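Before relying on records like the one below, remember that each one covers exactly one chain. Contacts with other chains, cofactors or solvent are not represented anywhere in the record.
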Amino acid sequence: MKKFLIALGIFALMIIAFLGVSFVGQKGAESNLPKKALLVGNQFIQVEIAGDPISRSRGLSGRSGLEEGAGMLFVFEASGLPQFWMKGMLFPIDIVWVGDGKIVGVEKEAPPHYGFGDPEIYMAPKPVDMVLEIGAGEFDRLGLKIGDAVVIQ
């Protein structure tokens, strides 16, 4: 009986470890999304491309953070006024609105949504066809500004 309980305990710990690795996003965690270099102003940012509805709806939810100089680029088929929220996010980000190849707006340090109630909705200030999410403070750290050119390499 004692051996059975020990084996059961080890099995339970293995399951918990597996679930923890599976459900907790890690900085630099690999994804299946295509990766590209993005030239923003005079800075390069390594981005994952969220170009379909499923990857755009998932976004960075569940991840624990982003490395410096990394981000996620949401690419839309047509210009519009997309809305973003921080539900399921575990860390704050800068949301950079991109229209016609230029930065047209930024929401700095958007905080994660915790608890109950409706999360805050962030909307582009004018029509955009791309949205860049980078770690909170990266917009200022990289010296980015409204009007900077944005080019996928």
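Helices lie at 2-23, 53-58, 138-141.
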